Amino acid sequence: MDIQKLETELTGPIESAASMAALEDARIAALGKKGRLTELMRSLGKMDPAERQQVAPELNRLKNEITAAIETRRAELKRAEMEARLATEAVDVTLPVRPEETGRIHPVSQVVDEITEIFADLGFAVAEGPDIEDDFHNFTALNFPPAHPAREMHDTFFFHPDEAGERKLLRTHTSSVQIRWMENNPPPHRIVVPGRTYRSDSDMTHTPMFHQIEGLVIDRNVHMGHLKGVLEAFCEAFFEVDEVQMRFRPSFFPFTEPSAEVDIGCAFDEGQIRIGEGDDWLEILGCGMVHPNVLRFCGLDPDEWQGFAWGMGIDRIAMLKYGIPDLRAFFEADLRWLKHYGFMPFDVPALGGGLSR
Fold this sequence. Notes:
Layout: H1 3-16, H2 20-31, H3 36-42, H4 49-88, H5 107-121, E1 125-126, E2 132-133, H6 135-138, E3 169-170, H7 175-184, E4 189-198, E5 209-219, H8 224-238, E6 246-253, E7 256-269, E8 272-275, E9 280-290, H9 292-297, E10 306-313, H10 314-322, H11 335-341
């Protein structure tokens, strides 16, 4: 058996392999199940001991050399493949880097933070409650009896009745949280309640889901003068003006008596609204003294405790302050709109450093 000749015949195709496929063919021809070297290794058992003792070490040496030659050639082919790839896929390091993308704070979130910052400075706590509400907390405890005509003012989203026949609903105002707060906390109370509310309405200034914030103060000897002072302080801080004119117009809400709509002085100038100047008026919220029946529903004696409440649409005052023309755009998830009207993450509202950007 000419081992030297066999070595030349097996290593030649390995060293000359021009591709991974050709190298694999050479490996199979030498070391595969039916490869030439494999067949010779199998034949060792048929040799006499003297011949086997002479041939076996040579075959093992040849197997090791062929394996090493295959690994060497495989590394050479991989290196050549990488060099060819780099030559055709050159990277232009002079190109500018992609701009860093940062998220934006939605105007609604920003305005909620601005409002709560103002009222926190006035000593108010922030309260929250469920979006899915029952009839008692949304209507009855707020002085809406079952057949009260004022219920027709609310286009309510009702759920199907449960097994007990009770119909849950999506809350039509955050006033329901005021009831829950008074049920579970002793007076006096000073809270603001931001949150989502739901009514079946959709146009340029209304959406089926919108954001509202309401405030409540319950204490002894509270009167309308306190309400006016709180609202004046809020409007001046929120709109960032030194003085704001306010006008209270009589109105009706079942849960307050007396009730009022609040207008603030402004000027309309070529589509722009300037708060705190001019002779025009702009309605921004509703308010009033808490109705005695509401206090009684919450276990409070109206002869001892009085209070006032107010509510406003967060989306609406965000539109007024930041010049956003269409309420529906708030909820269309348009990144272009959010980049234009949104706020940087570090634009944290603070009375000392300025509420808005």
